[in-house]
Design goal:
Layout (H helix, E strand, L loop, with lengths): L1 H19 L1 E3 L1 E11 L6 E12 L2 E8 L2 E8 L4 E8 L2 E7 L1 H7 L7 E11 L2 E9 L5 E7 L2 E3 L14 E8 L5 E10 L17 E2 L4
Parallel strand pairs: 1-11, 7-14
Antiparallel strand pairs: 2-3, 2-13, 3-4, 4-5, 5-6, 6-7, 8-9, 9-10, 10-12, 12-13
Length: 209
């Protein structure tokens, strides 16, 4: 009898936790991208990152003064397209499922350490986690467990994080920290389906082995 009660109690806890987490199938999230030198606490904005999610599709735009990259990912087919603009030149690479996995191989089978620390981002209580990559480098992540994107593999290193990542920080070999922090999140306005159309002309095609 005690065993049955214990199982029922655990089930109710798990059900309550899942009920509190909302699956977000359509949203737009804007992140500010800043760098911080090891010898200087001042931050410099370097780029803007925008994530669009609609059902099983995701689009990530990273735009700086000299460079722009857009990744369009389809969860249904597990395929992607990467579009780059450098100066006046435009390039596009389409990736099969195997090519997408190979491109992200260094980000797979990573180790995630969840902590008890938290940070408020856009009024969301975000938990802190440390993600250790295969090369032993670490990424500090802040995610909210209250929402979860319907597409997670578009940001491959975050696919196993149990929530929506609204902030993360990376440190390079020179001690320069790159900080991504969400500044806007819209869960209500529809995302145009055209955002996920892959261009058919105007780009130089670069093949991926």
């Amino acid at each position: 009898m005690k065993t049955i009660v214990s199982i029922l109690f655990c089930f109710l806890i798990l059900h309550g936790a899942l009920a509190q987490q909302r699956i977000v199938a359509e949203c737009t999230v804007v992140y500010k991208v800043e760098t911080q030198d090891a010898s200087n606490s001042a931050r410099q904005q370097k780029a803007t990152k925008t994530v669009y999610i609609k059902s099983n599709n995701a689009r990530v735009e990273l735009v700086s003064q000299a460079y722009a990259q857009t990744t369009i990912y389809n969860k249904t087919t597990a395929t992607a397209a990467i579009i780059r603009t450098i100066g006046g030149e435009k390039y596009m690479t389409t990736l099969s499922t195997a090519q997408w996995q190979k491109l992200n191989n260094s980000l797979d089978s990573t180790r995630i350490v969840l902590t008890s620390d938290s940070l408020s981002i856009l009024d969301y209580s975000c938990k802190k986690a440390i993600l250790y990559l295969k090369d032993s480098s670490a990424i500090t992540i802040y995610y909210t467990p209250s929402i979860l994107p319907s597409v997670r593999e578009y940001e491959y290193m975050f696919k196993d994080i149990p929530g929506f990542v609204l902030g993360y920080e990376m440190l390079d070999a020179k001690g320069v920290k790159t900080i991504f922090r969400a500044t806007q999140i819209n869960l209500y306005n529809p995302v145009p389906a055209s955002k996920f159309d892959i261009p058919t002309k105007g780009y130089r095609i670069i093949t991926q082995e």
